[in-house]
Amino acid sequence: MIFPVSLQGHAQAKIPLEKAHKDFASGLKAKKRHTVKIYNRMPQGTPALTVHCASKDDDLGYRTLYTGQDFNWSFRTNFWGTTLFFCRFWWGRKTIAFDVFNADWEKRGYHHTYTYEVNKDGAFVGYGETPSNPMLIMQKWP
Asked: Which distant-in-sequence residues (6+ apart) come within 8 Å of 111 by Cβ?
């Protein structure tokens, strides 16, 4: 069976119905689940870490993490593949901010778990369930 497709101002094209269904279904495939985890690894007796994370559509609010505490969330990328989450971190008078998830990373074969350890030196990223070596520096404290 042929499925006619008409584009305004263009000639009508004919696409086999099976291909139209397959193309549509592939666009609706469930995206893989991603998890972002943030761990406060500051020294004992230092100020708490304040974290504010958000995307264009979801504000996850402000979180106060004391030494040893963590915060995490899971999500799927949006239909358009443009999901982006960013976080700002405050520790005493210092602040840093960066993207913690960008759907473009998925296209380049990056991981689906992003684990961030924030310590006295800055923020580090790894791809395991918990912070472990080696972790890459994301940003140092100013």
From this structure: 127
**CB atoms near residue 34 (< 10 Å):** 21
**CA–CA dist 92, 24 (Å, integer):** 50
Are 125 and 77 spatial neighbours (Cβ–Cβ below 8 Å)? no
Residues ≥6 apart with Cβ < 8 Å to 22: none
Q: Compute and round to an integer the Cα radius of gyration of the chain.
A: 21
Give the predicted TM-score (pTM) of the model: 0.77
Q: Residue 83's pLDDT band (boundaries 50, 70, 90)? A: very high
In this structure, the number of other CB atoms found within 10 A of the CB of residue 127 comes to 13
Q: Find the angle CA(123)-CA(117)-CA(49) to the nearest 5 degrees.
A: 75
